[in-house]
Amino acid sequence: DVKVTQSSRYLVKRTGEKVFLECVQDMDHENMFWYRQDPGLGLRLIYFSYDVKMKEKGDIPEGYSVSREKKERFSLILESASTNQTSMYLCASSLGAGGSYEQYFGPGTRLTVT
Amino acid sequence: GENVEQHPSTLSVQEGDSAVIKCTYSDSASNYFPWYKQELGKRPQLIIDIRSNVGEKKDQRIAVTLNKTAKHFSLHITETQPEDSAVYFCAASKTGGTSYGKLTFGQGTILTVHP
User: Fold this and answer.
1) CA distances from residue B75 to A52, A73, B39, B89 in whole angstroms, order as listed
2) Between chains, do A40 and B93 touch, taking CB under 8 Å as contact?
3) What is the pLDDT of residues B9-36, one digit of tens each?
4) For strand B72-77 and strand B56-59, is the pairing parallel, antiparallel, or unpaired?
5) Minimum distance, in Å, between the CA of residue A96 and any CA atom of chain B
6) Is the dihedral of CA B52, A45, B88, B100 positive or negative?
């Protein structure tokens, strides 16, 4: 049973703070993804990673960076949080090349920037 | 890049009725089309998917149809039940190569099934 966990369910930060969101998966998946979910906009891809230390921008990377130092862990970093980054952040993972493309999601982190 | 449009944004049906959610995509190279269900307060979960070499796929009360020529695909839920109430997301992806299974999601449909 795939398990994807995220470091926090709820987070409140102040404008200008550096914010770290962590995601861990326990199924040796190659691919990991960070999305933000906003009502009426669906899930929008921020960044993804297909291997350790490898990353690619998604559709809305501005204001974010990522880090993948270990296969099981993918971090999303908000260098200087702004109020327009208040959102639900979802992490996901998938098996990788030659395997299933099903993405398994974490429970989400609801971030509020004040 | 790929663009996925999903309609309707909200759908309200009576228990036992059918529900249909439609999506269109822009990139003719997309060949994998999953549907995810997100219940209130929970994480999205895959409920059914279809690849471009198949026109229709069914799993009990849910089915997905794909029209590659028109670049649209639909989710059909028959005999709806209150537990079908959720947000449904369609998505599109290219498989293989350097796509890494990256999904582009639609905007979501809030389905409410009234007892």
Assistant:
1) 36, 33, 17, 10
2) no
3) 999 999 999 999 999 999 999 999 999 9
4) unpaired
5) 7
6) positive
